[in-house]
Design goal:
This protein is an alpha/beta fold. The protein folds into 2 domains: about 120 residues, Rossmann fold (3-Layer(aba) Sandwich), CATH 3.40.50.720; about 180 residues, Dihydrodipicolinate Reductase, domain 2. About 35% of the residues lie in helices and about 25% in strands. It has a 7-stranded mixed sheet with strand order 12-11-7-10-9-8-15. The longest helix has 20 residues. It starts with a strand and ends with a strand.
Length: about 325
């Protein structure tokens, strides 16, 4: 495959980010983009980027024999049907997380991909972050010895609007699913047991929709290591994303990214910038890297970096965490 022709389904914020990143790759060509609300504004946006086809109907992309792969950036409830249709048409697939809100549906999607012999990459962009990749390298190389503890801090600068909260799937499936994948990615081991606690401390609207806005999750891995994740929907000082791997020979820590590293020290105190405020800033390079690796995998015929099975495992952990919170007990992944 010399040049990969791409169709993008869903032209919201993340769809447009992927489009702009794909345009950077010399072996990727965006042939079409679809969105239910496509209109003059999207047409103008696409025209400026040389995207010839703009449509409201995703079928035009899925049935187009010239398109090799699709980026599924639409709402989560559409993911599984679109994955199945794309696979049936022999198209490779990049899909945003989660694959679905239902484990069985996710399994059906993965089976459709497997039967069709196409590639499926899940949008766990944090795996491509330069800081977190370095921590993983330290673990895999044995630099910190045997991993004993994986600690992840994940805090958003502000909560999402209520319209999003009520359809998000909850803090574990919507927000912490990235952290569950990161725990697997760093540890190199599967999660065997989960214990979650949560509270509504930021905004009572979360309780209205049966959700929490502040949570901690304890993990036990198959290799005996332990994990701790703390999560909040609101950190007043910015986007707080940190990890630490502690082992028998030492530790590896990745802190936040900042607009700059200048620190002002005076008699009054020591001052530095707040962390980068939003995920689009914090993970800008990671988004670019994940699209590049997806295209490279297709061109070379290699396996993709983040598979459907990775998405499935993260969803299982999220389900276990929700059950743990509801029943106030540790939950084994074998129950899910």
């Amino acid at each position: 495959m010399n040049k990969v022709k791409i169709g993008i389904i869903g032209a919201g914020r993340i769809g447009k980010i992927h489009a702009d990143n794909l345009l950077r790759h010399p072996q990727a060509e965006i042939a079409a983009i679809s969105d239910l609300f496509a209109g003059p504004e999207l047409e103008e946006w696409a025209q400026a980027r040389g995207i010839a086809i703009v449509t409201k109907n995703s079928e035009e992309i899925l049935n187009n024999p010239d398109i090799d792969a699709v980026f599924i950036c639409s709402s989560t409830d559409t993911h599984v049907p679109l994955i199945k249709q794309a696979a049936a048409q022999g198209k490779h697939i990049f899909c945003e997380k989660p694959l679905s809100m239902d484990i069985k549906q996710t399994e059906e999607a993965i089976e459709a991909v497997r039967n069709a012999g196409v590639q499926l990459q899940v949008g766990f962009n944090r795996r491509f972050d330069h800081n977190f990749k370095r921590v993983r390298e330290h673990i895999q190389s044995g630099a910190i010895g045997d991993a004993h503890l994986i600690k992840i801090t994940s805090r958003d600068p502000a909560p999402p609007p209520e319209a999003y909260i009520k359809v998000s799937g909850g803090i574990f499936m919507d927000m912490m699913i990235h952290d569950f994948d990161m725990a697997r990615f760093l540890s190199g081991s599967e999660v065997e047991e989960v214990y979650a606690q949560g509270s509504v401390l930021v905004d009572p609207v979360f309780a209205v929709h049966g959700d929490v806005d502040t949570a901690t999750v304890s993990l036990k891995f198959a290799n005996g290591a332990l994990g701790v994740i703390d999560c909040s929907r609101k950190a007043v000082y910015g986007y707080d994303q940190r990890v630490e791997a502690f082992g028998s020979k030492g530790s590896s820590v990745a802190g936040n990214d900042f607009p700059n590293t200048a620190v002002l020290s005076t008699a009054e105190g020591i001052v530095s910038d707040k962390p980068l405020h939003f995920f689009l800033e914090r993970y800008n390079v990671a988004y670019i890297e994940e699209t590049e690796q997806f295209i490279n995998s297709l061109v070379r015929g290699d396996a993709v970096a983040v598979t459907g099975e990775d998405g499935w495992q993260a969803e299982r952990i999220a389900r276990a965490a929700k059950l743990s919170l509801q029943e106030n007990r540790p939950v084994k992944l074998s129950e899910i």
